[in-house]
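re the bet — no i am not wrong, look at it urself. input seq straight from the record:
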Amino acid sequence: MRQNAVTLYVEDSEAESIPTVDLKDFAPPYLFVYGTLMRGEHNEQVMPSGAKFLGEASTKEGFALLNMGLPAMIRRAGAGVVRGEVYEVNEGILARLDRFEGHPDFYRRERVPLEGPVPEAWCYLRATPYSRAEAMPSPASWKERSVS
């Protein structure tokens, strides 16, 4: 993992006039996928060829995976973790996937904390409540779901 850091030496009198910049905003965007966009799933071909697979990852605690016939991840206090994959992407890939995922109406793209190759990535979370679906047991994995 690459650390982004800049050291700037200034006189104390100049310190207040220097804007603070968060260098993670300049890092390549990363995307965490947990459902049909993963390798081996039926929408894997939708993932543009420019997306670079970085490895498997899990969310930090506080997320639930719902099976609505399609996967949907939500934030839920006290919930567990969701397993998936991380890709390095660019703004063009994100724009294409925003259209595919129905962002921001059906799925909403948000940053989520991860355990894996990167500490944080964009992810598509369910945008509206869905009361008929139960959360899959944690650690939730769409690839390990029961298909009946």
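see?? The helical segments are 91-101. told u. also The first strand starts at residue 30 and ends at 33. so pay up
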